[in-house]
Amino acid sequence: PDAERRRRAAAALRRLRPALVGEAEQVLGRAEAVAFLARLDLWFADVHGPLDALYPGALDELVARLVRSALRAAAERPADLRETDRRREVDPRWYQDPRMVGYVAYTDRFCGTLDALPAQLDYLAELGVSYLHLMPLLRPREGENDGGYAVADYRSVDPRLGTMDDLEKVARALRDRGMSLCVDLVLNHTAREHPWAQGWLAGDPAYADFYLVFGDRTMPDAYEATIAEVFPDRAPGSFTWVPEAQGGAGGWVWTTFWAYQWDLNYANPNVFAAMLETILWLANRGIEIFRMDAVPFMWKRLGTPCMNQPEVHDLIQALHALVKLAAPATVFKAEAIVSPEDLVPYLGGHARYRPECELAYHNQLMVMLWSSLATKDARLATASLGRMRPIPPETSWATYVRCHDDIGWAVSDIDAAAVGWDGAGHRRFLNDFYAGRFPVSFARGALFQENLETGDARISGSAASLCGITDARERDDPVALELGIRRLVLLHAVTYAWGGVPLLYMGDELALGDDTRYLDDPALAQDNRWMHRPWMDPRAQARRHDPSTVEGRVFGWLRTLAHTRRELLALHAVAAPEVLDLDDPHVLGWRRRHPRSGWFVGLVNMAEHPASVDLSALGGLGELETVLASDEPRQMRDGRAHLPGLGFAWLAE
Ligand code: OTU
After folding, report:
1. Could you tell me the pLDDT band of residue 640, with boundaries at 50, 70 and 90?
2. CATH number, position 588
């Protein structure tokens, strides 16, 4: 069937191409038209194949319409972005370079407004940042808006932050310093106030079938029988009764997340076309990396969890290939917080292999790191990370310690059983531990979305509070504080060397603790994820160069990790990590090697007491030198690596 699909794609290209040659020359000029058509030839099968699977009816017409959207966007692409395109086409794997370090921030909480951002670039440069993810900034609905994930207009900026013009200036200022702008694309749903939703409600034929609605509970009940709830405590179920729907008769609208976030109906090709236009337009404003929000939910199928359906991959693959036609500098990052088996396909490992997202959040690594700190050993991490399928070589992980969301304990029962634990029991332990309910816990987090029916819950809290820094500061305990700092540094020593783009979450470079001011804002108070979305503290920032302060120590380490990373070819993302089987269960170790480098070995000791591991037993390793380590003196002795409690070492041949 795959060969048959490719034949159909080739035939479709033969039908479409002749007309496009002239059109492209007319709107792009000769040289740019040659490039556009070369991209069309390169990507056409990846455009046509998935659309063939998704929308078999009137396919030629649809493909022609979408390719012409891309051509129009290519013609409108500003000159400086075309220069970026040229550079990225010469170096298409730019995002794998060890110089890549990401920073994730809310514009208002970081620096107020967009026009104040360029003045902060020196600060980011200190941290070695080359990629800036600004949290949702497109115009959201008024009032509650899920931190901007309920978009009312994709083509304007939240007026509290500035204008689209300001955003373009930020993108340009970043580009001038070799930094890339990443912005969220919330494509599973819009706010109910979005013109598409309002047009659909009003019965405007242009928006017919843009959303999913059912007149009674029959279908919603049937679907919900196999769907897990995302926000069980305040948004139970996946449907919301909307009295104005269906011409005033009312109906149950599909709302996976909050009631005001309406899921788009991607079974309708007009929705796909509208989202493509949106991405192309935003790419031309200077956004280089799109964080593809909540992609697992984009396709619904009765009798399934309505996540990770094969059509989701077809949708992203087709969007990806079409965007490449117009804006080749653009990269997609998948936000799919799902099991490792379901996650890897977002990087293109899907059955019919096609490029999909270049980057994806490494949720499994993040969860395993926190699990290891709580249990003070590395067995579960070693088992679970060791059995993950490798990712395609042209893709990379986005590795992270904390982000703006809660932590859901993606501990599979199989992995738990491999180390003799009970999956459900361990997940419960992690919730108790990080919520500070467990007697010896150092953490001060809080439960998020506790589901009283299933006993499930997730964890909110800043890295500093989950690492024990907050608790130690409040108790004024210098020994505990030391351990907390070591935990925070250790976690980043993994994410900066594991493989891929490390994403530093704003505030963690200064060990900022939880922020309780959200409780005063009625639009935020009910969602405790705001506790770990702090406001930048200029006083803490001012202490960053003072090594006698917590801020100075953590900031200094993060700077060193980034700057050491830059020069290590073995940390190029193409070098996949191999998880090591070590003779001490407290140590997580991995090694990697670029085709043109020697081995790199990373080691972290999750226990509070010293550990040592025999590296000579691994085989294949030459003489290792310490590139960077938590403690002096040299940690390599007699073929063994010695790690103090909560210590780390980066070693290289
Ligand atoms: C994302 O998260 C965002 O990161 C959240 O901040 C939003 O609330 C949400 O989408 C809606 O836009 O369920 O608990 O598998 O886990 O997309 C967070 C992906 C979420 C989901 C993820 C979602």
Report:
1. confident
2. 2.60.40.1180
Between the CA of 542 and the centroid of ligand 1 the distance, in Å, is 33
Give the residue whose CA is nearest to atom 22 of ligand 1: 294
Above pLDDT 90, what percent of the chain?
A: 90
- Identity at 593, one-letter amino acid code: R
Q: Kindly state whether residues 575 and 561 are assigned to the same domain.
A: no
Residue with tokens 């305990």, as numbered in its chain: 477
Residues having CB within 6 Å of any atom of ligand 1: 146-147, 149, 186, 230, 257, 293-294, 296, 335-338, 404-406
Residue bearing the CA closest to ligand 1, atom 1: 294
Give a yes or no: residue 546 inside a domain.
Answer: yes
Do 180 and 232 lie in a common domain?
no
For 400: left if phi > 0, alpha if psi spans -120 to 50, otherwise beta; the answer is beta
Query: Are residues 621 and 581 part of one domain?
Result: yes
Burial of 415 (0-12, 13-18, 19+ CB in 10 A): buried
In the residue annotation, 514 being an active-site residue is answered as no
Which of 90, 122, 148 terminates a domain? The answer is 90
Q: Does pLDDT of 350 surpass 70?
A: no
pLDDT of residue 352: 59
Domain boundary among the residues 263, 289, 308 is at 263
Strands (E) located in 203-274: 213-214, 239-242, 251-254, 261-263
Give distance in angstroms: CA of 335 to centre of ligand 1.
8
Instruction: Put the strands of the sheet holding 611-614 in their side by side order.
Output: 611-614, 640-643, 636-637
Q: Is 335 marked active-site? A: yes
Q: Domain limits at 212?
A: 195-263
